[in-house]
């Protein structure tokens, strides 16, 4: 896996023919689960996908799951939620970095590009939105993880699309 700056990941995608462009997978990495969201074919809208169980012992299985998702959804990169608003050495920040390092060590996702995107309170915002739905606790936790991933991915897509449109209009001047 190769890290890229957020805007560079999106701009590299735009350099490809429309038929060759892939989609993005958003990840909300927690200590027990990884929430997943996927972008549409135009990389404009994020939708919830699923939740994967996260254990140190199943990182190879998770890498294989990601490999399947890459081919199933024609993915071109991962947008990984990262707690930029906290200290870099916070437990949440460390667990995200370790997760990425463990995925890299498997070697299964070689050539895949990823970037980090601020997860700024995505889980808390999702909890506020879902609290009145009276979901079963298991459904509630799963929904929070998936929709936090949606928040991460949608935030990235909005930024990248807005930045690209702004740059295009500046080029016209």
TrEMBL record:
SUPFAM superfamilies: Ribonuclease H-like. SMART domains: YqgFc. Keywords: Cytoplasm, Hydrolase, Nuclease, Ribosome biogenesis. Residues 22-126 form the YqgF/RNase H-like domain. The keyword RNA-binding does not apply. GO terms for biological process: rRNA 5'-end processing. CDD domains: YqgF. The keyword Nuclease applies. GO terms for molecular function: hydrolase activity; nuclease activity. This is YqgF/RNase H-like domain-containing protein. It comes from Daucus carota subsp. sativus (Carrot).
